[in-house]
Amino acid sequence: MASDLISIVIPLRDEAPNIEPLLAGIESAMASMAHPWEVIFVDDGSSDGTVDKLRAAAARPNVKVIVFKRGQGQTAALMAGIDHARGDVIVPMDGDLQNDPADIPKLIAKLDEGYGVVSGWRQNRRDDFITRTLPSKLANALISCVSGVKLHDYGCTLKAYRKSVLEDFTLYGEMHRFVPIYAEWQGARIAEIPVTHHPRKAGRSKYGMSRVFKVLLDLMVVKFLTRYETKPIYVFGAAGFGFFAISLVAGIWALYLKFFEDTSFVQTPLPLLFTLGFITGVMCLLMGLLAEVLVRTYFEAQDRRPYTIKETLNLPSDGGPTPPSS
Fold first, then answer.
1. Strands 190-194 and 117-121, how do they pair?
2. What is residue 135's three-state secondary structure?
3. CA separation (Å) from 11 to 28, 109, 213, 268?
4. Which segments of the chain does DSSP mark as H helices, in order?
5. Same domain, 140 and 28
6. Where on the phi/psi map is residue 173: left (φ > 0), alpha (ψ -120 to 50), or beta?
7. Which alpha helices (DSSP H) does 186-232 contain, by range?
């Protein structure tokens, strides 16, 4: 990987005091490596003079700048940086100086061992424990349990990716933290190493407790898309049969009370539960069928296939012999 171009992607919002120190740290870290590199700053709607600082920094030939018309979130900023990166390796990091550029060589060295993703782990995190660290630990445990991909710190922006791992991803919401899950489910090897975490010196954090709920909702979407993207009927069908089972039990119980306990239908909510369960079950099945139609339209309209190929041997596209026609 000695000749691989490294693209460092940094989303920013109101981080004017941190730009020059961060850039100096990156230049110092990359000076010890043989890799060519570029840094891509993405301004996410700053209002504190960050854009002016970025314009000045762009005098350096390996500094690229993208400025959004308005704030669109960290995930969108990272996606824009990745889309415009020319590197074979992508290294996203925060712009608040809490990530240490000196850790970039360690991430690249681990990537050289054959991994597709190397994730940073803020082992000694320097944030408020109650409002930041504890919710993060709980979220990381939940994400690892649901996804099956065991990482200590999904929220650490400092990671290293091979560009090929990111080619088929389009990220929305707060989903940038779930890229290792997508990558692992597509066969990439994942590693995690401890990285340095500094306390914030300038500016203020853009994170709040509301982000926890967004992450949980996005986790549901990730689980659905990665497991049931091509067969959504399995999800809706299972829910539908669950409601049918509830309806059946309620109906049988209502009949039992009617004929053996002399309890009128109007004296119990069971008939209503039977009706609602049956209707909801039918709706779930119909939604599943509609989702199946949408999935097929999606794949066929984009000429996509519901599978990904890592390697082929002796196929026509490899220059191998063309199989005889029958």
1. parallel
2. helix
3. 20, 24, 22, 58
4. 19-31, 50-57, 74-83, 104-111, 134-147, 163-166, 179-185, 210-228, 233-260, 270-301
5. yes
6. left
7. 210-228
CATH number for the domain harbouring residue 193: 3.90.550.10
Q: Is the dihedral of CA 175, 178, 180, 182 positive or negative?
A: negative
Q: Is 53 exposed, middle or buried (0-12, 13-18, 19+ CB in 10 A)?
A: buried
Who contacts 266 (Cβ-Cβ below 8 Å, separation ≥6)? none
Whether residues 54 and 96 fall in one domain: yes
Q: Which domain holds residue 255?
A: 233-301
Tokens representing 324 are 């005889």
Whole-number Å distance between alpha carbons of 299 and 245: 33
pLDDT of residue 26: 95
- Six-digit token pair at 261? 């306990």
Among 201, 228, 255, the domain boundary falls at 228
State how beta strands 117-121 and 6-12 pair.
unpaired
Is the entire prediction scored with pTM above 0.70?
yes
Give a yes or no: residue 96 inside a domain: yes
- For residue 321, pLDDT over 80 is answered with no
Rounded CA gap, 182 and 115, in Å?
14
pLDDT at 325 over 80: no
CA distance 10 to 37: 14
DSSP string computed for 62-83: TEEEEE-SS---HHHHHHHHHH
How high is the pLDDT of residue 189? 92
The pLDDT tens digits for 110-154 are: 999 999 999 999 988 887 777 777 778 888 888 888 888 889 998
Per the structure, the count of domains in the chain is 2
Would residue 99 count as lying in a domain?
yes
